[in-house]
Write a structure and sequence with these properties.
624 residues, 20 helices, 6-stranded antiparallel beta sheet
């Protein structure tokens, strides 16, 4: 065995040009699980003098889920800044720039004026793509420069020399335009490190020296093949890859970045290993969202950084809890309950003997003071020793009951829940604690009023969808003539949305001016509501006239069709914001909910924050 320590590029490395691609079939047999080999070369850790975290939530992170809206991107960017951007720990955030929405997001985040995270772009290694970065004023951009023969031979259909020449030409162009290129060495853990990667890296360092500008390299473990083990062989050894670039290609550690994927459950340890052996930056995403199995979880890297450096002031770790709440509330993403740092029950224990120890002193089983570091109390564990006070505590905290609605241990239903728990222990000899789901069932049985019903959720969804539609219609200028134009607009609108049962417009006295009935089968019944009919005593008319706001009534049964409907109304105003009438719509609830998904997508597409002229370029081909 040997200990290797080399400083600087000690020898010139020549590009090797094989006739056939080097696919490392001994390591990657494809029809079998990939192999990990060892060559007994050992390296001592040599951490980078500056370790930092970079973010690709809005680039790689969007390749694993429906795209974020501009508003969502801006809010998450704010959270990144508060979490670790204020100190520069989270130093960079990477954005797509291909679509109008992408560019709108960049502009909106730039308007925040944050120094960190610095906003950078990602483009394919073509001059046209690079020009997008130049035109948007970027001073740094990622360039897709795939390095394995899987990509060079089998995807690009090029020789190694042709691929290198293509990459170098676009890097030269970036430097000429004053843009720092960040070359993404895609699929580096299946590449020929000495035959292609290091000679390519040396050429990049020569361009850097000639231009007086840094050229950065992102080491992309595209398939998650990297391993952190001492003595493991190239090209899978994270330690060896990082040190080869630093010690033999002469790449400064501060210009190296590791980008991993979690295909083999090693993404976090591989990223930390890259840190420990000299790579300055580790790329990540919020909650690890990324292509296929995902990237390094950013929040985990924050905790690991503090653990390695002792720099408690580098991040506001309580923001991790805010991030988790935002993903669940706004993005409707269910975080696994046991997901570290962010899951609902990550700092809870269900084993009875552990629960007893936690009750005596939470430090026995809690990883750290989660109240201080994550703004999360230790969830109370319900056992036969919890008592009524513990049951009340569980209800108040897990159901997030506000002050004024919190229950005490004296509440009769709390006593009933406690008795039911004790009965289970007495009758079954149970030794484990009650799970969250079991407690929810018990609380739902004895205190159903604390839970919103499925019907409540349906009403909220229906009201939200209908409200956005009616507000859009009410703002149309054609309604202001209360005549033929208004009638035509109502008919066109009702035809577009088949769940509308009855659409009507009144003046400020509540007199019906025009209306439309979508189903001809019901027109005879609606004849009882002729033009001029007086609606002035109806709630849907009076409240918008009084408040000028939208009004959503409760679900009821239609007198005309016997269907469940929801009535939504809003004031119609002129150019001076003076109320001139009221627009109302009766919507069939069942029909509306059938169209809920398409309506949401349509409304997001029409959101004013995402409107911008121009066409999106084709989606990028290739990821790292």
């Amino acid at each position: 065995m040997s200990i290797l320590y080399q400083t600087g590029g000690i020898r010139h490395l020549e590009l090797q040009e094989p006739e056939k691609p080097q696919l490392y079939r001994d390591m990657f047999p494809y029809s079998s699980v990939c192999r990990t080999t060892f060559d007994q070369v050992l390296l001592t850790p040599r951490p980078s003098s500056v370790m930092r975290i970079t973010d690709t939530t809005f680039r790689d992170g969007q390749q694993a889920r429906p795209p974020y809206t501009v508003k969502q991107i801006c809010h998450m960017f704010d959270l990144l800044h508060r979490l670790g951007g204020k100190t520069g720990l989270i130093s960079m955030s990477e954005f797509f720039i291909y679509s109008p929405k992408d560019r709108k997001a960049v502009d909106s985040c730039r308007a925040r004026g944050y120094r960190y995270p610095k906003i950078t772009s990602w483009v394919r290694a073509t001059k046209d793509d690079l020009r997008l970065s130049k035109d948007m004023g970027f001073t740094e951009t990622g360039l897709l420069t795939s390095v394995s023969d899987y990509h060079i031979f089998l995807k690009l259909n090029k020789t190694r020399q042709q691929a290198m020449d293509m990459y170098l030409s676009i890097v030269e162009q970036a430097l000429d335009w004053g843009i720092v290129p960040r070359c993404h060495f895609e699929d580096v853990t299946r590449s020929d490190i000495y035959g292609f990667c290091l000679p390519f890296a040396q050429k990049l360092m020569e361009l850097s020296e000639q231009s007086g500008m840094p050229v950065k390299i992102r080491l992309c473990d595209t398939m998650g093949y990297g391993v952190p083990y001492a003595g493991s062989a190239l090209p899978r050894s994270v330690q060896r890859i990082v040190r080869a670039f630093i010690d033999e290609a002469g790449v400064p550690g501060e210009n190296l970045e590791w980008h991993g994927h979690n295909d083999f459950h090693k993404v976090l340890v591989n990223g930390v290993t890259a840190w420990l052996f000299g790579c300055s930056a580790v790329n990540s995403t919020l909650l690890g969202f990324g292509e296929r199995t995902g990237n390094s979880p950013l929040e985990a890297l924050v905790i690991e950084y503090i653990s390695l450096t002792g720099d408690d002031a580098a991040a506001d770790t309580t923001v991790i809890t805010e991030i988790a709440e935002y993903f669940e509330r706004e993005l409707k993403y269910h975080i696994p309950h046991n997901y570290p740092f962010a899951g609902r029950d990550f700092n809870a224990t269900s084993a009875g003997v552990h629960a007893d120890g936690l009750t005596k002193n939470e430090e026995i089983y809690n990883i750290f003071d989660t109240r201080v570091l994550l703004n999360r109390p230790v969830p109370i564990i319900i056992t036969d020793k919890t008592g009524r006070a513990g049951v009340a505590y569980w209800i108040n905290n897990n159901l997030h009951l506000p002050e004024g609605k919190r229950v005490s241990k004296k509440h009769p239903a709390v006593g009933q829940i406690y008795d039911a728990i004790m009965a289970v222990y007495a009758e079954t000899g149970r030794t484990t604690s009650f799970s969250h789901e079991e407690m929810e069932t018990l609380v739902g049985r004895f205190m159903p009023e604390l839970f919103s019903t499925e019907f409540d959720h349906v009403k909220l969804l229906a009201g939200d969808l209908a409200a956005k539609l009616i507000l859009r219609l009410a703002a149309h200028k054609d309604l202001l003539d209360f005549g033929e134009k208004a009638q035509a607009k109502l008919e066109a609108f009702a035809a577009e949305f088949p769940f509308i049962q009855y659409l009507y417009l009144t003046d400020t006295k509540g007199l019906l001016k025009c209306s439309t009935i979508t189903d001809p089968n019901y027109k005879a019944k609606y004849e009882a509501l002729p033009i001029g009919y007086d609606f002035s005593q109806r709630e849907w008319f009076q409240i918008p006239m009084h408040t000028g706001d939208l009004h959503i009534m409760d679900v009821c049964q239609s007198l005309f069709t016997s269907k469940l409907i929801i009535t939504v109304s809003c004031a119609v105003t002129d150019a001076k914001d003076i109320i001139v009438g009221v627009l109302g719509v009766d919507i069939q609830l069942e029909s509306l909910l059938k169209h809920a998904r398409s309506l949401k997508q349509q409304q997001e597409a029409q959101s004013s924050e995402e409107q911008e002229e121009g066409e999106a370029l084709p989606p990028p081909d290739g990821t790292d």
